[in-house]
Design goal:
With about 300 residues, the chain is mainly alpha-helical. It contains 10 helices and 3 strands; from the N terminus they run αααααααβααββα. Among the domains are: about 80 residues; about 110 residues, Structural maintenance of chromosome 1. Chain E (Arc Repressor Mutant, subunit A, Orthogonal Bundle), CATH 1.10.10. Helix 1 packs antiparallel against helix 3, helix 3 packs antiparallel against helix 4 and helix 7 crosses helix 9.
């Protein structure tokens, strides 16, 4: 537990240092873009690099986003500083550059001719020389089809123009069975969860319903993915009116079966309410630890 507290405290310290560094950089931006004092910008980047080492160590996404935002500011300052450089003493003459390039490619020849003999080997040597000053980016390659391209293709029926015989082409089969299968599985799982809820709430004729904690019912301490699936299935029961969600005396949600509302059952208008909540893996682990959950009320399903 102490290690976890130190872990979160260290991440908070990193975010605090990033905010201080960003604020200081924005405040001293006029001094940092001065070309005559580039050491200030270098010091700021060195501090950011040392902070990023801690970001890589603790693998923090929020801290990485703050580092990216700071780099945007630093790159803008570097651009402004470069634009203020005085380049009047060094002028680029394209004609002089071309003449020097022709001289290099012709083997330092001093012949004063318009068309010098430039060999293919000379171009290769120029490429090797220039390659030392650039980082080569990896080339991208297209997949050129699916992974199963080695399988033999079925012969397609075509229209024979010579005999003017029209043969019907093959029509791909619609995958309606997949959709139907998914709906059937969802309906089956919703029914199972309803039966489990009735069992834990002692729901029978003539007996009082005993609500169960919503989180205790849907949380699967063994699988975060199945916890999300349980919430998904329960939402169907709530939507159709078979299950009701209320808050207990402590303000925590409880769940229990109920009879669906029928049209004309009440004279008062019955409104529908919806609510959404986010459940991250950190909150999932925190709920398991606080409530002391060990075994799921909804059995773990086979993948």
């Amino acid at each position: 537990m102490a290690d976890e507290v130190d872990y979160h405290q260290k991440k908070r310290d990193i975010r605090r240092q990033y905010r201080a560094l960003t604020s200081e950089t924005q405040k001293n931006r006029h001094e940092l873009i001065n070309p005559e004092s580039t050491a200030g910008l270098h010091d700021v980047l060195d501090r950011a690099n040392r902070l990023f080492d801690d970001v890589k160590l603790f693998k923090g996404t929020r801290e990485a986003a703050m580092d990216s935002a700071f780099l945007v500011i630093a790159s803008s300052l570097g651009k402004q500083s470069a634009q203020k450089l005085h380049t009047d003493l060094v002028m680029f003459d394209p004609r002089e550059y071309v003449e020097k390039l022709k001289t290099y490619l012709s083997g330092r020849s001093l012949e004063n001719t318009e068309n010098r003999n430039i060999t293919v080997e000379a171009w290769r040597n120029l490429g090797k020389e220039a390659r030392l000053h650039f980082r080569k980016a990896p080339a991208s390659h297209s997949l050129l089809g699916s992974f199963g391209h080695d399988q033999p293709k079925k012969d397609r029926q075509i229209i024979r123009k010579k005999d003017k015989e029209i043969v019907p082409t093959a029509v791909p089969k619609q995958l309606t069975s997949v959709v139907q299968s998914h709906q059937e599985v969802t309906t089956e799982e919703v029914g199972k969860i309803m039966a489990i809820l009735q069992q834990y709430t002692n729901c029978s004729e003539g007996s009082e319903v005993d609500p169960v904690s919503f989180f205790e019912f849907v949380i699967n301490p063994q699988s975060f993915g199945q916890t999300i699936e349980n919430i998904f299935y329960v939402s169907f029961l709530v939507k159709d009116g078979h299950v009701k969600v209320e808050l207990d005396g402590d303000g925590l949600p409880v769940i229990f079966p109920c009879e669906p509302y029928k049209e004309g059952q009440s004279r008062q208008a019955v409104g529908k309410k919806q609510f959404m909540f986010s459940l991250t893996m950190e909150k999932w682990r925190e709920i398991i630890e606080v409530m002391g959950l060990e075994e799921p009320l909804i059995p773990t399903r086979d993948e």
